[in-house]
Design a protein that fits this description.
mainly alpha, 2 domains, 59% helix
Amino acid sequence: PGQPHRNERRANVFAAEFLAPVDDIGPALDRVSTRTVHELDELRLDWGVSESSLVVRARERGVLSDRQYRAMFRLLNETGRMYGTRPGVPTETPELARDVLAQLATDGYSTTELDALTLLTAGDRTSLFGAPEGATAGSRHLTVV
């Protein structure tokens, strides 16, 4: 019963350390507080991780108390930093996945096969990655393993 939660926690810890090693980001996290929330904007741009994950890292480092941690999440919600895009903050586009799908389409894979490969509907795949040029209605056979 507790296994999925433990695995998820371990994955989160690994991802956090992989994307923003505490030895490297630690000194910058020391400046984070409810009075300096703008620091999160800069750290997000520098490190490419969400502001909420930076708040979690600051708490893990002991920079934020439980009360400050809750206050930071309230502030993230109130200022629109928690979800969605923000003006002036660039969003990432999944270029590698788009390029792989474009190459598969160029190699003759059909839209049906691309949908099966990505486990997405054609509309969802197109909205996420764009429509690959050269995709056909069907011809080659793709086996998903």
